[in-house]
Structures are given as C-alpha cells and as structure tokens.
Amino acid sequence: MIPTLPPAVSIREVGLRDGLQNERPVSTEAKLRLLDALAVTGVRRVELTAFVSPRAVPAMADAEALAAQAHRWPQLEFSALVAGPGGARRAVAAGIPDVEYVLSAAEGHSQANVRRGVDDSVRLTEQIAEIVHDGGGTCEVIIATAWDCPFDGPTPPERVVEIAGHAIALGADRISVADTVGTATPVRVVGLLDRLRAHLGDCSVGAHFHNTRGAGLACAYAAVQSGVVDLDASVGGLGGCPFAPGASGNIATEELVYLLEDCGVGTGIDLSAAIDAAAVARDVVGHELTSGLSRAGDRLRTAPAATGRR
Amino acid sequence: MIPTLPPAVSIREVGLRDGLQNERPVSTEAKLRLLDALAVTGVRRVELTAFVSPRAVPAMADAEALAAQAHRWPQLEFSALVAGPGGARRAVAAGIPDVEYVLSAAEGHSQANVRRGVDDSVRLTEQIAEIVHDGGGTCEVIIATAWDCPFDGPTPPERVVEIAGHAIALGADRISVADTVGTATPVRVVGLLDRLRAHLGDCSVGAHFHNTRGAGLACAYAAVQSGVVDLDASVGGLGGCPFAPGASGNIATEELVYLLEDCGVGTGIDLSAAIDAAAVARDVVGHELTSGLSRAGDRLRTAPAATGRR
What we know:
Chains A, B: GO terms for molecular function: hydroxymethylglutaryl-CoA lyase activity; metal ion binding. 2 copies of one chain form a homodimer. By secondary structure, chain A is α/β, with parallel strands linked by helices.
C-alpha cells in the first residue's frame, strides 16, 4: 500500500558544522563560499557552526568570525551547536541565539565526549535554555546515541523518552534524535519516534541520520513515513568519521532532496543547485565526497551517461 | 506505527554477474575465490554468470568455465542471466538451467541494449522458457528499466504490468523488476509492486535495486515493507557504472543484510562472513568498493573506532 507521507519536510543543512568538524580546518572564506552555494539551493535552515572548545574541535575555531558574516544571508535561519552554557553565551553574543544543545543518551558516549554524565548533561538544559531565551533564541536538544552507543551498545528507547521529557520540562523548545554512529535501521527508528511522540505530544521531534552503514536514507524515509518533518542532512554527505576512513558521514542533502521530492514530499530545495553546492563542498575539503548522486547526477541528467544491462 | 515486515527475505547474490560485468575481466580463479567466500556467508541463491556475447561483455566470457566448477558448492542454487534463446541453450548445456531472462520495459533502452524492440523481446520469453523447462530449469523474467529509462524517461507502470502479464502467459515462472539506472524511490517502488501483485496474483515478484543515487536501500526496505521477499544484492556493492565513475552499483549484500536483520527480517546470511566476502571482492577487482558498511564494520565492531560528537 502506498504510504501516506507529509506534504513537505524541512531540511536543516548541517554540512558547515557536522560536515566540516572532522575535516582538516578550512578557512572562513571557504566556508562562506560554501554558504553562498547553499543559499541559492533554497534551503532555509542552516546550522552554521559550533560554539565549542577550539582545542577539541579546531575546525570550528572560527565560529565568531563566521557568525559575524551571517547577516549577508537574511533569508536563512541560522543556528549553532553548543555543548554547554559557555557555548550558549558565545552563540547569543555572536548573534546566533538559536542553538542545538547536544547531549548523549548513553553514559559511555557522554563521558567520552564531554566527560560528564547523562543526568548532569540533561540538567544543563535549564541553564542553556534560559541563556538563549533571554537572548531571544530557542533551544533544541539533540539526543545523541539515541539508538546505539559505541561503548554501551543499544540505547533503551525508554531512556531516550525520559531524557526528552526532562529536557522539555527544563525549557527545551524541541527535541531531535541523532544516530551518532550510523547504526540505526528503519524499524528501530520508527519504534523510537513513535514512543517519543506518544510521550511528547505536540512537541516537534526531528531526526539526524548518518549513512555509515548505507541505511541513512532508509532511516530518513522511515522517519518521514512515521511523520517526522524536520531532518538534518549535509551537503555532499560531508562528515565522515576520521576513525573509519572512507565511511560515509551524514546523509547527503541532495540525495535526501532527490528521494523526498520524487516521493512527492516538498523540500523547497532545488536539486540542481544542491548538486552544484556539493561540488563546491568537495572543492572546499579537497577530496571526493560520499554522495553517489552528486556524481551520478539527477534523473534528468542520466541519459548521456547511461548504459545499463539491467 | 511500526511496519509489519515478512519474517524472512531471500537474497540472491549477483556480485559475480552484475557486479563484475562492468569491471575489467578478472580470472576464473579469482571468481572461484570470491565464490568460496560467498558460500560461507550462508547465502543460498547465487547468480553465477551471464551467457551473453563475450564481445559485448568480455567479463562474462568464461561463463562455461565457471559453470563447470559449480558442482563444488552443492549447497548453492546457481542461476545465470541470458539475453536470448542462444544464451538459454548455452546455460542449459553448461548445467545451469535456471535462468534470468532480462528484457527492457522501455523501447529506448531495449534498442540500445539488445537492438530489439520490447514486444519482440517479450515474445522471446516463450522460446527461452521452453528451452530451460526442457532442460529441467526455470525462467525468471527480469524487467529492466522498470521505473525509468535513461533514454525514454519514466516508464509507465501499466506498461511494466502488461509486459509481466505477457511474460507469465508465455511461460515465465516468475518476475523481477529492476531499477537499471538507480533512479527509483520508495513511493514509486511500492506503487509498481502493488500494481504488479494485483495483476499477477500469486506469482512471485522480486526486485533489483542500484544505489546510484543513495536510495537503493530505502527502495529495498520499501519493497520488503510492501511484501517483496526476493531481492538481489551484490557483495561489497560491486557493480558501478563505467560511464559514471565512482557511482555506486547494486545495493551491497552486507548492507542489506545488516538493515534487514536489524529490522527483525531473517536473511540466512552471516554479517561478519558477508563483510569478509566484501574484502575478497575488493581484492579481486583491485579497487575500493562503495559499501560503507564493509569499511565501517557492523554494530558489534563499532566500539574501538568510535568517536562521535553527534
């Protein structure tokens, strides 16, 4: 039976943040060039950078410099990732008061990533939400390792639901769940999203997938099928893991746009412009990206390149 | 709502045929080595080769030599692709009487591929089915360009249904639909499969997807969701298109196994062994393959390599 899908999905472009954070740092100018290419695709929401320790993430050390240029694209809604109240203050001061506060649902990943327990991380939501609300912004809590933790194994869905509920109670404006290690698959995706929505009611729940094991777009499709209308994606699939060479990073924006639009789900993003942006991204990082579509082209471009026995 | 999926899916391994047909020809010995690695994965159905013109497809020139060794793996069910009655006779003579007869649903692709119209190709089903039935085998008709043709654009679903009906009437034992150029997406996949099943009743309908634009596994998942239990996949994702360098080929067997098993759908294939087979495939062709999972490893192997900010 043909599934009923929402008429439109809003894609947040995270290439400048999740995509570049594991790359050798690129210049602010190069990021602005990529932003120029992204702006013409029609994407509206852009995660611009992360206000985190420049020692821990050198690729994001120019967060303030980049934020200072955001005014050039008044049509875009910028947000930034933060890992604590300090980052939230920096974001507000830099004029990007809409933040994603990322915390882990799994103890092992939380300790490894921020040397802080999960409950302590959840508690910080209150302070962060207050800071950004005072600054006129919003606080989205992204729950990392929402399906699996590389250290602790599968994350119990009820734990994610509990964390999401706490975060909302502490002031978070919305929730997103992230498949940090790229191990989620469709049935578990739907299982968690159904539970979250049952508990959170009207609160918006977004999703963030990696394509590390090839299942990223299948998970995104399953999420949309289950009613999710807020998805993260990264231009060109930028964002591989430095500890798994050649492994895919985030799902590629242009591949997600292709799939959704072909399924009758609007994204507001022009596919050709998105493919062009992926070429700029490749140029900026100086190596091939994992997006197949950025190389194969969209459907309209297939004819000259086609052979095909079957 | 968590989807109801079939308890098990049968994967046909097509790496030796679709995977290798566009590669520089590899030795029969190398193919046998890959077959050794595949045999221990637990896969049961293997498309061994194609009985087609060695001039057109040099990589399949050793079809008879390969078939002569098939007896070494009595636990495997071998089949072979044919493009006409001559190939069917060769297949039967070589002891591989179970054939896939591939024909195009689109005129443009049919002419470009076999210099024959679609209706003429469909008519040949009768002769081919008779040849293989007389030889104690079966005839599966694979309808290529079932969703899109690189020359003619989208293929009308009703045309595919009509062709499938004719093929069955002419003696085909079952039908498979192939996304030859890797442009299908889930909703169109389900739309065609639903129509086919409505018209063909109990006849088995399989599906064959390419991952060229990243949507291959999403299509496979959608197909399984809609009730398909016969899927093709290729070890390591072997099988890129020579005219689109870097573009993915077939969906990767190990990625499909990972996704399905994690969704509770049995495949009978051991994931670790499948990843090992992908390493052999890479070695055999002498270049990196597109399967992300074969590089990232399965879930159990993630811990040491994990980092992950989100």
